[in-house]
Design a protein that fits this description.
- Helix content is about 30%, strand content about 15%.
- It has one domain.
- Strand 2 and strand 3 form a beta hairpin.
- It has a four-stranded antiparallel beta sheet.
- The chain is elongated and about 70 Å long.
- The protein is α+β, with helices and mostly antiparallel strands.
- Bound molecules: iron/sulfur cluster (2 copies).
- The site of one iron/sulfur cluster has 11 residues, from loops.
Amino acid sequence: MSRSAIRASSTRKLSAKNPCAGCGGQCCQYFALNIDKPETPGEFENLRWYLLHKDCEIWVENGDWYLQVNRPCKAVSRDGVCTIYEDRPTICRRYKADGCDRNGDGYEYEQHFREPEQIAEYARQELARKRRLRRRATTNGRRKK
Ligand code: SF4
Ligand code: SF4
């Protein structure tokens, strides 16, 4: 399941009997966790470390940051069926097929990082931008005195 992703509503017609028919369990192939927005060089370094690991990516949606781990749930079968359906976790029960990975209208990421170099470059630019803003604020403060 996409644990945290907010999906746009779908226009696709779903089978009332089984909206997941033929999907292969796309939403059971990963999980995503909300993480703090990085502000400092050390926090950006931690994100770079995440991305040095296989099957990890980071994305930003509506200003919120997420770490996604692309590893399948242990309970999904090879053909994408939940093998513990009656006992599946609450988060899986709440996930709606009408806006899901297959049936939704797609994600609109503000940022999407797959490689450590990408977050390092973003950090370089973002931290430089913040330094410029601080300098400007200091200069403006002095002028007002
Ligand atoms: S909820 Fe959507 S992505 Fe998940 S198995 Fe059903 S159709 Fe596939
Ligand atoms: S418990 Fe079942 S529904 Fe939930 S992620 Fe695993 S396979 Fe999918």
